[in-house]
Amino acid sequence: MMKLKTILFDLGGVLIHLNKDECVRRFENLGVSDASRMLDPYLQNGLFLQLENGALNAENFRKALSEHTGKEITHDEIKWGLCGFLEEIPPYKFDYIDCLREKYSVYIISNTNPYVMEYAHSKEFLPNGRTLSSYVDGIFASYEMKMVKPDPNIFTYMPQKAGFLPEEALFIDDGPANVEMAAKMGYQTYCPLNYFDWRPVLDEILHNQ
């Protein structure tokens, strides 16, 4: 096993605790009656998948969702709905990855959308006013790459873009299918559960390198 130089974190379910039920509830309140069918913690369906894979930008998604529901839905209402996924953003996890950058390159790789990332890049994201991008060396967002995990092309795109070797990278994701694909592509992997404080496990993994 090669020595680790790069750590790639999933966002939702690893750095942020997710609550699908709250997200569904918010969109149902906005008139999206089939929200439970389209929303998923790992991979969306329908219009929400088109948002995450970049087929629809934020405004075109807003228009499409408004047409889907038969009522006008605003940008801020959609942002409010999607942020329902974000049940808790634990500052201690971000303090931890901040310290990791003293020894490792750290990246985010997330199936996400421009509404959530608008919030993540704002000063409201964490109590200290820091944005997500201030904690990492880079962010690989699905809607910008036009690919969603577990697409194998993501795992060849990232090392080419960031200049690291897959075998020297640890991929951390709460989605078993994503972790399985990363392992097939030569990455070292770890699959924690949503809500789990994975810091002691990661300490052990890094200590044994």
UniProtKB/TrEMBL annotation:
- Which Gene3D superfamilies does its entry note? HAD superfamily/HAD-like, Putative phosphatase, domain 2
Superkingdom of the organism of origin:
Bacteria
Q: Which Pfam families match?
A: Hydrolase
Under InterPro entries, the record lists: HAD-like_sf (IPR036412), HAD-SF_hydro_IA (IPR006439), HAD_sf (IPR023214), PGP-like_dom2 (IPR023198)
Protein name as catalogued: Haloacid dehalogenase
Q: Which organism is it from?
A: Porphyromonas macacae
**What phylogenetic lineage does the species belong to?**
Bacteria, Pseudomonadati, Bacteroidota, Bacteroidia, Bacteroidales
